[in-house]
């Protein structure tokens, strides 16, 4: 049989399997079309082409989420204490926009005490205005109210697919050093029937735009646990900045002087924070203002000498020394200035 009399089938496009339409990387609602083309030469004559119908599939919404602790280890606290923070990141690892409810469990087994709901509130959502937890003020993070401001996260292809969440607790009195208290944050899909369902469960019409949703490997919910540890004292460091521009105002322009204030507070029922040192690198696009360093209003020299401070060419370093913790907090304040280039 001559070669040009053989039927030659050429498939155009890719073979699409059902599992591929569940892949988290492909956005929910994506339509995948596939068409086949057959060409042949009837009885040695001119080539004839025929096209198949289009096989069309729509990518379902895969519902997946992760919750991880951001804390490097146990979070130190004293007894009693208020508004101690555990930090988590909740990430939508599915392929569609999803809304998640947040819950806290402070009665976790295997520890020595149960934290209680923070005086400022139970759960806060980072608003992106200032790094770290802010309970009050202009940059205060958002108090989570279930059903009112549930966490809405875009698909995993978006930069808005995750959010930092703070679990805030008060610490009871009467504890001893090294006591541990655990708390768990859980993020659960708000899609009806999703949270806790068996992986692979299909939820007809409940995905983005009315497409089907499929419960992913995380069963549409995820938890992470953080731990408080009671110590004899805690050290809290905070920093603020004020600006004086060349015209007497407070705008940051070339020539403006920024005054930085770093405060350390050592709080507890006893114990000593030994060799407490403040180290602050001069920010880019600024120049350290010579002779501006102070510790508790006492001027320090920039040189390495008998006093507590020095400027090493790139950073202000102040050796505060041993600080005894007190119930009301022992405060030390470092101040220095930098000029905007």
Outline the fold blueprint.
Blueprint: E1 8-12, E2 31-40, E3 48-51, E4 55-58, E5 61-63, E6 65-69, E7 75-77, E8 81-92, E9 98-105, E10 116-117, E11 123-125, E12 142-143, E13 151-153, E14 162-171, E15 180-189, E16 202-203, E17 213-215, E18 221-230, E19 233-244, E20 257-268, E21 272-281, E22 286-288, E23 294-295, E24 298-299, E25 309-311, E26 315-324, E27 330-340
Parallel strand pairs: 5-17, 7-18
Antiparallel strand pairs: 1-2, 2-3, 2-4, 6-8, 8-14, 9-13, 9-15, 10-14, 11-12, 11-14, 15-18, 16-17, 19-20, 20-27, 21-26, 22-27, 23-24, 23-27, 25-26
Characterization of this structure:
The chain is mainly beta and 341 residues long. The protein folds into three domains: 3-59, no CATH class; 63-201 and 212-230, Sandwich (Immunoglobulin-like), CATH 2.60.40.10; 233-340, Sandwich (Immunoglobulin-like). It is 0% helix and 48% strand. The chain has no helices and 27 strands. It has strands spanning 8-12, 31-40, 48-51, 55-58, 61-63, 65-69, 75-77, 81-92, 98-105, 116-117, 123-125, 142-143, 151-153, 162-171, 180-189, 202-203, 213-215, 221-230, 233-244, 257-268, 272-281, 286-288, 294-295, 298-299, 309-311, 315-324, 330-340. The strands form six sheets. Strands 6, 8, 10, 11, 12 and 14 form a six-stranded antiparallel sheet that branches. Strands 19, 20, 22, 23, 24 and 27 form a six-stranded antiparallel sheet that branches. Strands 7-18-15-9-13 form a five-stranded mixed sheet, with no helix packed on it. A hairpin with a 7-residue loop joins β2 and β3 (48-51). The radius of gyration is 30 Å and the shape is extended. Residues 1-23 have low confidence and may be disordered.
């Amino acid at each position: 049989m001559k070669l040009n009399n053989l039927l030659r089938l050429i498939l155009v496009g890719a073979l699409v399997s059902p599992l591929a339409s569940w892949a988290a990387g492909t956005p929910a609602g994506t339509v995948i079309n596939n068409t086949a083309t057959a060409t042949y030469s009837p009885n040695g004559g001119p080539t004839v082409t025929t096209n198949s119908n289009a096989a069309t599939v729509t990518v379902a919404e895969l519902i997946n989420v992760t919750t991880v602790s951001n804390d490097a280890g146990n979070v130190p606290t004293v007894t009693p204490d208020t508004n101690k923070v555990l930090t988590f990141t909740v990430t939508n690892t599915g392929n569609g926009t999803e809304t998640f409810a947040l819950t806290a469990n402070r009665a976790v087994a295997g520890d020595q005490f149960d934290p209680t709901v923070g005086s400022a509130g139970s759960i806060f959502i980072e608003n992106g205005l200032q790094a770290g937890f802010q309970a009050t003020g202009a940059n205060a993070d958002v108090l989570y109210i279930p059903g009112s401001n549930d966490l809405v996260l875009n698909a995993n292809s978006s930069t808005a697919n995750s959010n930092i969440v703070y679990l805030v607790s008060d610490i009871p009195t009467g504890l001893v050093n090294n006591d541990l208290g655990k708390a768990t944050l859980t993020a659960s899909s708000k899609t009806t029937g999703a949270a806790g369902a068996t992986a692979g469960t299909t939820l007809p019409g409940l995905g983005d735009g009315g497409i089907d949703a499929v419960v992913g490997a995380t069963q549409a919910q995820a938890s992470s646990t953080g731990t408080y540890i009671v110590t004899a004292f805690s050290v809290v460091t905070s920093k603020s900045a004020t600006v004086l521009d060349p015209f007497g105002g407070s705008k940051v322009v070339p020539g403006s002087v920024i005054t930085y204030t770093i405060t350390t507070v050592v709080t507890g029922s006893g114990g000593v924070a030994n060799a407490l040192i403040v180290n602050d690198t001069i920010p880019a696009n600024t120049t350290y203002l010579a002779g501006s360093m102070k510790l508790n209003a006492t001027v320090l020299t920039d040189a390495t000498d008998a006093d507590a401070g020095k400027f090493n060419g790139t950073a202000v370093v102040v050796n505060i020394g041993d600080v005894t913790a007190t119930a009301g907090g022992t405060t030390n304040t470092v101040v220095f200035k930098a000029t905007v280039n």
